[in-house]
Write a structure and sequence with these properties.
about 200 residues; alpha+beta; Immunoglobulin-like; 2 domains; 4-stranded antiparallel sheet
Amino acid sequence: MSVNSSNKNKISKWALFRNFLFGLSFILVASINDNPKVETSKRTPAAATQPKVTTTSFIKNPLLKHTKKLAAPMMTHIISDEDEVSEGDTFTLTGYLKTSSSMKNVEVKWVIPNGFSILNGSKSSYITSAEAGQDYQFKITVKSNSSVNQIFHLVAKSQMGDSHFSNSSQFHTKLQKELNKSNQELFQRTREYLEANN
């Protein structure tokens, strides 16, 4: 019994040591580009100027660098003829789909909350061959039976080879105007920050 326990203890110590070495090697590889670099453009007396020292983060290491988020080759968005919807209102939602490459068999579907009924338009559509860069529209006219905020979704799905793609957009019956304003302010702040820091 003690021999078996001793072997388990040796194995767990070895596993701990191996994990430590792996972590240490990862830090060393990640810090390859983290060494300070001294930039000097011309030779001057040491007391006259100090060399500019720059450091680079380990994120700039090509082994660890993340370039950008993968995006589906299709985009959707929704526009409403009403900014805010009250109970009993009739309003029209227009959904848009645009693809960045030609796609076949694109399924487009409205996801409608409870308490709403479609007066005109189709809940789902099917595009057998979507052309790159072309805008596709999907309109529905809806009657509201809800006094609280509800969320509509427009969902597009397709497949290219073994890859499945989807994209969705939302419309809020009570909060959409506020959300649009907030998104616009965030966009403006981000643009001002980037201009100030570049």
